[in-house]
Write a sequence for this structure.
């Protein structure tokens, strides 16, 4: 199983997007549950704990994915086999896309109230 | 000197050809129903899908005839509702998916240098399920009781109160039956692509078409189960009154919309990806150069596969979901434009840098590029919430959907049809009739659907069966109807072209398009075993770099050139590197797939007419037949009793512990897990959102019994794990007895779960809470019974000598199921007992 953690393994072609998918499920489900259990006062607009929570999750996920993208590029440079280099570079692109996608999906918290 | 006809066959090679012909023989007459070969099954899928396409097209013509004039009385509103529902259903479920799967089943082994798919009986079974399911569904039209709630069957319109007839039942049961076929093909394609590539074909060297099909198959595996679950729940509501989607009973109709679109949006990409795969295969061939940015395309495929699962709510923008949540989905919907654009730019760059030849297949590709890009642009418009609200449920959406689906799937499919036609028939397609057909369809399509955008912007709803002249939609509708008949004339011409082709088409050379793919390195029409010998391939363009391959393969100069053992064989290779790992022995022709599908068809029909005792008997028979089918594996006399292989050849897969069966079970867990997660989603969704949900103050389930059942399955799994570990070390002592005792533990778990259900005195027809609880408990109960049955069979097989230290694969596969059962059992326990008890009886 240890070899799966190496960023030259093709499993990382999907691990970035899996993290993005988990992030997406967490923020959507979290928002739904939070709005159902403790909806904030509508007059607070987007200045609510829910927005802050989603924002923190967004930033943490983006940072993690960004770091993984950078680590993949490094792994690609050090790869011994051409195949490993290929997977590492494509994975780096996937991590980068996932990082940008995370930030883009989370961006509306700065503009919209959570439960209206 | 590169053609097959130039091959020099020695007497030994002639014997090899003859031997393989006998082993891979396709019988005729009634026994043709036993054929499991991927070429035949793939063709059957495509021909059957083509017939359903014509039926779906006929229904479209009826719709356009009705809408051509205001106040038209050509169809009654009842007939119209049935026809438009069936048009969408037939095109999506009976045409698009099965035809593309058929194409993949036909092509994939040929492209990756394999002799067949990894479990041929499964694909034959899938075909019969598809055929019977399609016939059952279409019979509803003949009986004038077809579903009439739209192809997405929204509740409560499709529920018992508003659709009291059999129409919705036909849809729910028929589609679920057909989805068995889609899932079986999905599982098989994933494992075949990953584990049966020829020697040396590393993952990053395989054809792009295989990447597209891998993504499509995985998306089917993950995307279809939510709809299967939704269909089961809705049928349970309609047939037995379990109120999953009824507000008064604690259910919620919006749950159906979630489950449907969790499937429905990825479905669009499931249909598009193979189409894009055809485009990515054909453009380099006709541009005469490798594709620009192979890695970019791979990345785009994977991104599409993931992001398309994050868009489902954009079909539900008007359902009252909070705006912030809508914004998440709106953003994700815009994100998906990026991988699409990557592919479009890759295609354009390849054309730009190459020397394109405007052949008939390329004409269809150009048509695709125009139409699909237009459809993509309106898709970005629809991803914007305010615009979406304005045009929701109007003909604008209908036009967008057709631009995406017809552009993204039908045009590439026709391109692929003309491209691979010589492969099947050995003849070249005509130019004149083919071009006429293209222009009629291309112009007819745009006349129909471009104008439909305006009809939608003027406010015409998508489901109205007629309209008043004062609305101002007359001219637009008439133009759309004229265009649709022009398109139909184009399809008729295409069929005529195909018929004439098989009679009058001129003989095709070995590689008629100067293609790079391995599928052109075999006789035309192909033999049932594809390749006489399997070559080592380390390039993305085998025929461009080694044009002699057709001849050398035919001359038997490559590997796996043995036949005296009488087995059907292909290589099993490493999923990443393509290094050889096993010799996979494949089953021969069999009646089991047909009989199993017949038994399931009887289950389907019995449920439809509510003859439940018959359904129960047929279900038991079906399970019995499926288990009997599984008996003929491994060292069974009809499989591979003799494990002898040629010197230097890898061992038979059933004599290893990492054969494709383990992969098949793992991919099946993905599908099963998707259904399980959908069920959990339903539980938590109703708990948190349904307005009338009633959570009792204390759980009605007995904790001691639940823990007892949990202990039984935990002990069984640990024991099975220990037996497998011993097998890994070459010891099978205590294997048979151990299997029987583990089966007893599985039976004990099932018994205790049965007790839990009986003792809880649930009222599933009264509350959605009890109904969901019951379904969750039945889910783990059925898995427990299956685990016990399989261990019982393993015990028997050890006795027969089909499983031992030398033949250790099957216990590994069964262990995988037990581990899945163990995980899901404890999750269910936490979800339905732990959390409600911890959080208290909330409303």
């Amino acid at each position: 199983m240890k070899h799966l953690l190496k960023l030259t393994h093709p499993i990382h072609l999907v691990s970035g997007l899996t993290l993005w998918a988990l992030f997406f499920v967490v923020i959507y489900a979290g928002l739904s549950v939070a709005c159902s259990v403790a909806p904030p006062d509508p007059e607070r607009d987007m200045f609510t704990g829910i927005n802050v929570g989603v924002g923190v999750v967004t930033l943490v996920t983006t940072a993690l994915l960004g770091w993984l993208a950078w680590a993949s590029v490094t792994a690609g440079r050090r790869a011994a086999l051409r195949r490993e280099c290929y997977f590492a570079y494509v994975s780096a692109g996937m991590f980068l896309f996932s990082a940008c996608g995370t930030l883009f999906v989370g961006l509306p918290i700065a503009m919209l109230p959570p439960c209206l | 000197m590169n053609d097959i006809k130039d091959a020099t066959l020695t007497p030994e090679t002639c014997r090899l050809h003859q031997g393989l012909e006998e082993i891979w023989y396709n019988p005729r007459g009634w026994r043709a129903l036993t054929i499991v070969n991927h070429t035949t099954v793939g063709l059957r899928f495509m021909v059957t899908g083509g017939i359903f396409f014509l039926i779906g097209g006929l229904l479209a013509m009826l719709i356009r005839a009705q809408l051509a004039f205001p106040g038209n009385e050509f169809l009654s509103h009842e007939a119209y509702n049935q026809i438009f529902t069936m048009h969408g259903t037939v095109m999506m479920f009976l045409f698009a998916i099965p035809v593309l799967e058929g194409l993949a089943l036909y092509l994939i082994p040929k492209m990756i240098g394999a002799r067949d798919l990894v479990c041929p009986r499964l694909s034959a079974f899938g075909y019969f399920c598809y055929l019977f399911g399609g016939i059952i569904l279409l019979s509803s039209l003949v009986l004038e009781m077809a579903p009439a709630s739209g192809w997405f069957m929204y509740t409560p319109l499709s529920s018992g109160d508003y659709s009291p007839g059999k129409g919705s039942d036909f849809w729910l049961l028929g589609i679920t039956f057909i989805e068995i076929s889609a899932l079986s093909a999905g599982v098989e394609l994933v494992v075949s692509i990953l584990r049966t590539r020829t020697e040396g074909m590393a993952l990053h060297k395989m054809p792009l078409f295989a990447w597209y099909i891998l993504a499509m198959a995985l998306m089917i595996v993950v995307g279809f189960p939510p709809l299967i679950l939704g269909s089961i729940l809705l049928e349970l509501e309609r047939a037995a009154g379990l109120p999953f989607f009824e507000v008064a009973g604690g259910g919620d109709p919006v749950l159906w919309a979630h489950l449907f679109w969790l499937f429905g949006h990825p479905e669009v990409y499931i249909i598009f990806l193979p189409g894009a795969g055809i485009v990515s295969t054909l453009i380099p061939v006709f541009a005469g150069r490798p594709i620009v940015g192979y890695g970019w395309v791979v990345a785009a495929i994977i991104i599409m596969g993931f992001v398309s699962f994050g868009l489902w709510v954009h079909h539900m923008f008007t359902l009252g979901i909070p705006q912030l949540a809508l914004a998440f989905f709106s953003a994700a919907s815009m994100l998906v434009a990026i991988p699409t654009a990557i592919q479009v730019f890759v295609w354009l760059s390849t054309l730009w840098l190459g020397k394109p030849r405007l052949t008939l297949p390329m004409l269809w590709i150009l048509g695709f590029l125009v139409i699909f890009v237009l459809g993509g642009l309106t898709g970005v418009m629809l991803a914007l919430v305010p615009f979406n609200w304005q045009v929701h449920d109007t003909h604008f959406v209908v036009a967008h959907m057709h631009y995406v689906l017809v552009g993204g799937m039908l045009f590439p499919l026709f391109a692929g049809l003309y491209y691979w036609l010589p492969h099947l028939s050995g003849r070249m397609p005509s130019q004149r009739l083919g071009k006429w057909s293209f222009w009629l369809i291309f112009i007819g399509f745009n006349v129909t659907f471009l104008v439909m955008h305006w009809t939608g912007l003027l406010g015409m709803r998508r489901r109205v069966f007629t309209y008043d002249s004062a609305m101002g939609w007359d001219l637009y509708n008439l133009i759309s109807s004229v265009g649709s008949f022009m398109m139909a004339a184009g399809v008729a011409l295409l069929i005529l072209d195909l018929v004439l082709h098989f009679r009058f088409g001129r003989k095709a050379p070995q590689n008629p398009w100067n293609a790079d793919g391995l599928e052109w390195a075999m006789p035309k029409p192909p033999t049932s075993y594809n390749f006489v010998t399997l070559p080592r391939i380390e390039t993305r363009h085998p025929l461009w770099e080694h044009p002699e391959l057709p001849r050398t393969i035919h001359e038997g100069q490559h590997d796996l050139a043995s036949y005296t053992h009488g087995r059907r064989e292909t290589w099993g290779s490493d999923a990443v590197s393509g290094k050889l790992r096993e010799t996979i022995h494949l089953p021969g022709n069999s009646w089991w797939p047909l009989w199993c599908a017949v038994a399931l068809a009887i289950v389907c029909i019995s449920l439809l007419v509510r003859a439940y005792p018959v359904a129960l008997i047929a279900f038991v028979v079906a399970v019995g037949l499926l288990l009997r089918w599984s008996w003929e594996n491994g060292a069974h006399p009809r499989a591979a009793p003799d494990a002898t292989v040629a010197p230097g050849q890898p061992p038979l897969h059933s004599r290893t512990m990492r054969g494709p069966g383990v992969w098949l079970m793992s991919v099946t867990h993905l599908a099963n897990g998707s259904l399980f997660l959908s069920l959990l989603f339903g539980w938590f969704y109703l708990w948190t959102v349904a307005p009338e949900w009633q959570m009792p103050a204390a759980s009605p389930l007995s904790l001691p019994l639940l823990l007892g059942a949990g202990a039984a399955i935990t002990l069984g799994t640990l024991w099975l794990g220990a037996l497998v570990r011993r097998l890994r070390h070459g010891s099978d002592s205590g294997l048979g007895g151990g299997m029987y005792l583990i089966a007893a533990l599985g039976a004990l778990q099932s018994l205790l779960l049965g007790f839990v259900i009986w003792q809880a005195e649930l009222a599933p027809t009264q509350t959605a809470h009890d109904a969901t609880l019951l379904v969750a408990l039945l889910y783990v109960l059925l898995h427990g019974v299956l685990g016990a049955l399989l261990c019982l069979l393993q015990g028997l097989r050890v006795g027969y000598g089909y499983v031992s230290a030398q033949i250790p694969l099957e216990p590994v596969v069964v262990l995988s199921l037990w581990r899945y059962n163990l995980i899901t059992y404890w999750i269910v326990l936490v979800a339905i007992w732990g959390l409600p008890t911890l959080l208290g009886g909330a409303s």
Remarks:
- Chain A touches chain B at residues 9-10, 13-14, 17-18, 20-21, 24, 27-29, 31-33, 35-37, 51, 83, 86-87, 89-90, 93-94, 97, 101, 104-105, 107-109, 111-116 (CB under 8 Å).
- Residues 16 and 95 of chain A are 5 Å apart (CA to CA).
- The radius of gyration of chain A is 17 Å.
- Residues 49-78 of chain A form the longest helix (30 residues).
